[in-house]
Design goal:
Length: 275
């Protein structure tokens, strides 16, 4: 299974971001990839929520989603669209991953469960929950000829219970698109991605934002593909956007699960006793 990974420096113009994705779909197809993975907030990266609000629309009205679906169908490449900021029917926003099939249809969606509400020592402060509603469903989708893909987004990676459930669902690959900050990325990015791959005995594909963005933020990059043993197969570095390719050997999953059957050996952890 050949996949492509898009590392982006998304900006405040959805049309420009859509053009980058469409070009990547074409190049992924030319490179023999069956699935393209894109980062979190592929369609819009703008910390100015007042300015960005006019671009956050219902999914059926999203020009980025429409362009990606058309490109997927034209080139016969499935797209794990890392996430888009979309409006919900209740007026709130969602940080939503969408799995698009080779015919351009939306096969599955996942809304980010864990909100990035933090204050970092370098002065950066983020409160995702002020605008976005958290999701409430764990999502995995079966892709013909590919296997079962589990969906997660960025900050979700710090919450093992989600990945325990994706492991319970026997996911072969887990997508963890991200827009990690530089401080947290330098400290934890590789560590967490490898840990999630090992504990789920699955491939992890983490398409990432990179560099300095139009809204002033900086992201860590280092889009990764990690195999079920925790070995890094692809690291796209922390300097430039680009398109990378990796081969996923699906028989590797079964071999690792035979050697270290942690999913099969799992037991319920007893509740702690408190006096």
């Amino acid at each position: 299974m050949r996949i492509a990974v898009l590392q982006m420096t998304s900006g405040i113009d959805p049309a420009a971001n859509a053009a980058t994705i469409v070009d990547a779909v074409a190049r992924a197809g030319e490179g023999g990839a069956q699935v393209l993975f894109t980062p979190e907030t592929s369609g819009l990266l703008d910390r100015d929520r007042t300015r960005g609000a006019r671009h956050i629309v219902l999914p059926e009205d999203s020009p980025v989603l429409a362009a990606t679906r058309e490109a997927a169908a034209r080139h016969g490449v499935a797209v794990a669209l890392g996430s888009l900021a979309v409006a919900r029917e209740d007026g709130r926003w969602a940080n939503r991953s969408l799995m698009i099939g080779t015919d351009g249809s939306v096969l599955a969606t996942y809304d980010k469960i864990h909100m990035f509400d933090v204050a970092l020592e370098n002065g950066e402060s983020w409160r995702e929950s002020a605008a976005y509603a958290p999701g409430d469903q764990v999502v995995a989708v079966d892709l013909p000829g590919f296997g079962r893909l589990g969906l997660a987004i960025c900050y979700d990676i710090r919450f093992p219970a989600l990945f325990e459930e994706l492991g319970r669902l026997s996911c072969d690959v887990i997508a963890i698109p991200a827009a990690f900050t530089r401080p947290t990325g330098a400290a934890h990015w590789h560590l967490l991605q490898r840990a999630r791959a090992v504990e789920a005995s699955a491939y992890v594909v983490a398409a990432a934002q990179v560099g300095r963005h139009e809204d002033g933020r900086e992201t860590y990059g280092h889009s990764l593909v990690v195999d079920p043993w925790g070995e890094v197969l692809l690291d796209m570095g922390g300097d430039e956007p680009g398109l990378g390719f990796a081969e996923l050997e699906m028989e590797r999953i079964a071999a690792v699960r035979r050697q270290l059957p942690s999913l099969a050996n799992r037991r319920e952890v007893p509740k702690s006793a408190r006096s």
